């Protein structure tokens, strides 16, 4: 019962799925004051755990984080204090810390991670037209030269193969090789022609040797990662200079190929495309035309279109939630249930960014969390269990905010960082952590370890 | 007893008129000094800008990354950039001093499209030379223009064609099909030579208005009819280009007109004035304004209807861009609905000058403004 003096009590049953956090002995429901908040509950559970080192804890009731007093939570969610509450406790997340920054010559448009317990690699694409592979101690291992305009997206296909997409209308495949002496090489193997404008994103599904591209020419491309599977490129799209290259007499021109399919349907620039994480014959694309489209890749057909009120600039599939996260050109992320049975377009809205969201990544360790990168110069971590119910929608709020390191350093000195800070690309890996590329010409690595 | 308030039409609540631009988005950083002119290409992918530093810059609209920088002059400002209103091949016209330069964008333009653009711009060199018209005294009239191959310093910056006028153009406005364009040179010696209409395919120019009263300021073509709108300091005259005659004269009541924008439907005209007034003319009503809007404390420099949405914007020397809802009901008895939506602040006033230009994205509720403070900014 909610008491004015906060002395009211409620019965709670504590639970955890984490074996490290099991209570030493089974206890039944316990009575606690409804005025308690997270910190007091955390202290209570740590006492029960008889922990020598207290573990910061978070609490979940009905799949939502407790962010207020228990009393307020019950009121907001219309739960009676007479019932026994099941309260799940989990380790509180550690705020990310910047551990490294890799300097570039121009803005960084995209980042990807090749994860390995021994030696992980970071791939960056830059507006200077180059792709770069880095080691974990900010050592530049290899540079890929060839694009004649900005690189918009770059991804590892495998530990030995890389794909990049560019404002020069092409995608390029590269062979990546580590050497024994601590360097590496990026060798161009294939130039892919088909798009008629900037190729702004590329997605990879290695097991099926398939890649997807999205372009400012309003189409989504399907491509093979294997030269032998790829059809010939349309002759008129290939620049004359590529047909008879004269850099060195011995230099062989890189082979050219075309798409397996170019899918039309969007009415404007297609900002980003991704595979369905559980069914690689399905893809999702988002566009300036305000829509999220679901594509059947086997037939190259659009099978569903969801229209939102604003341009969509980024997309990420969240299979465990049956949701697609779409970043808008305004300030928020819309979570869309793409299943035909879904009644409403937006299942939840994540609010907090102050400018467009151009990149989204999943937490490699938890199905509940996602990472976003925005033109507001921040990356933010969201937990889909951290929500509040507004009059008309479910609103999620950020768990952590990662600023650019230069912004933080300037603030420490009492000044303001004057340069541009737009984040263009993010990636999240269990080994490496959070990697982001931005207008500050840096790849920044943040870790929660 | 009837409450007179109840008879007034109810204006919609701005919150119900979303989306409209209400916050800063991308900035386009690089110009030194005033940015005088901006234009978004018909695909909505690129933004062109020009200013006192004598350069034209082409930016990727969505990222703010500079794609191409063309230096036209080290002494004269770039006064106008205007994309040819045809998606392919892409062509940008830029006015600097007495010249109009035609730039072929290179980034993301296929080699085929670049070749098409160059062919389109230079085809007129092989067109039959025009016979100079003789004046009454039998002396050759000075040609209003000369079309020529760009100087090497320009040709190397992917300029394919240069048109030299006899005075400095302050307006360049394309006809919808991209075949004709008009230039207005307010500082020209006589009003009748201030305005010229040019045919790109044949490289020909003419001064169509012989006896013109008042100093021409700016002009535009009707989107679907052979009509031409010409603003002098205080009047807007509408000419029928086929019949070659004046068909209408508007009396906006402004002391000095700065800018015009025609509603895509063609029946409503916005007029901006240096004397701080924004005037909405319904061309089916009286020659006087349907609405006079006084929201700015300084001169209005530019005005723009959104090409597809029910929005318009103006830019002022007071440093603000103002966004309005403007609903036009075509072939109805209802008059236009105008609702002020948002004052966009952020540009700094430099030497009495504030925001010099505002343009809309072709489809989205986002606009870009150009400031005397050197800032170019997208609002979303
Ligand atoms: Mg992107």
From TrEMBL, chain A:
Pfam families reported in the protein's UniProt record: NLE, WD40
PANTHER family in the record: RIBOSOME BIOGENESIS PROTEIN WDR12, WD40 REPEAT PROTEIN 12, 37
Subcellular localization: Nucleus, Nucleolus; Nucleus, Nucleoplasm
Record key words, sorted: Nucleus, Repeat, Ribosome biogenesis, rRNA processing, WD repeat
Organism of provenance: Cryoendolithus antarcticus
Span of domain NLE: 10-74
The family this protein is said to belong to: Belongs to the WD repeat WDR12/YTM1 family.
Lineage: Eukaryota, Fungi, Dikarya, Ascomycota, Pezizomycotina
Record gene name: YTM1
Record function comment: Component of the NOP7 complex, which is required for maturation of the 25S and 5.8S ribosomal RNAs and formation of the 60S ribosome.
GO MF, any single term: ribonucleoprotein complex binding
Subunit structure: Component of the NOP7 complex, composed of ERB1, NOP7 and YTM1. Within the NOP7 complex ERB1 appears to interact directly with NOP7 and YTM1. The NOP7 complex also associates with the 66S pre-ribosome.
The keyword Magnesium is annotated on this UniProt entry: no
GO cellular component terms attached to this protein's record: nucleoplasm; PeBoW complex; preribosome, large subunit precursor
Protein name: Ribosome biogenesis protein YTM1
UniProt cross-references to Gene3D superfamilies, sorted A to Z: YVTN repeat-like/Quinoprotein amine dehydrogenase
